[in-house]
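Notebook entry, structure prediction.
Reason for the run: the old model in the group folder had no record of what sequence produced it. Starting over properly, with the input documented here first.
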Amino acid sequence: MKILAVSDEEAKSLYDYYRPGALTGYDLILSCGDLKRAYLEFLVTMSNTPLVYVRGNHDDGFTADPPTGCICADGKVVTVKGVRIMGLGGTRKYRPGENMYTELQMERRADKLRFAAWRAGGVDIILTHAPPRGIHDLEDLPHQGFECFNALIEKYDPAYLIHGHIHLNYGVNIPRRTRCRRTEVINAFEKVEICL
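New structure, fully documented this time:
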């Protein structure tokens, strides 16, 4: 299965400079948040492929007015084309906002998904906006990851944890992919292709 993961900044090659066929061949599109509604709607329309998303810290309007044709996995476990996806959007609480959480709040959100994950028979992908603590995150509060995401990797042993929020242009040594146990943690900033 060929997956396109996107986050935080629109990929110009898929939007501004789009050419017919640029989105063919993908079986699934995953969005880790902080992308414009119009962009997500464009991707799902032009690819004719399911698009699953979680909300980022700048997606406050998505609760009332979600992107048309897209599947929100935020706070849920969804199965799309046989892929079991656990979605936990949002970041550390550093200002007032809909998609901001303390560590304890995010841990409680994750705990609420235990039964859904059990009912699905496990989790193939954990889709988040923020990264796990200590993997791809930064030290300032707005860009710190969540400890409970490390516990989710240990508990569910997914093939991938895919996140956004940490822009690769924040520094020269920010990794795109890191192995954690048997899970590959992937930063989906702008766009990245994944095979499952």
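Summary: The chain has a mean pLDDT of 96.
The old model has been moved to the deprecated folder.
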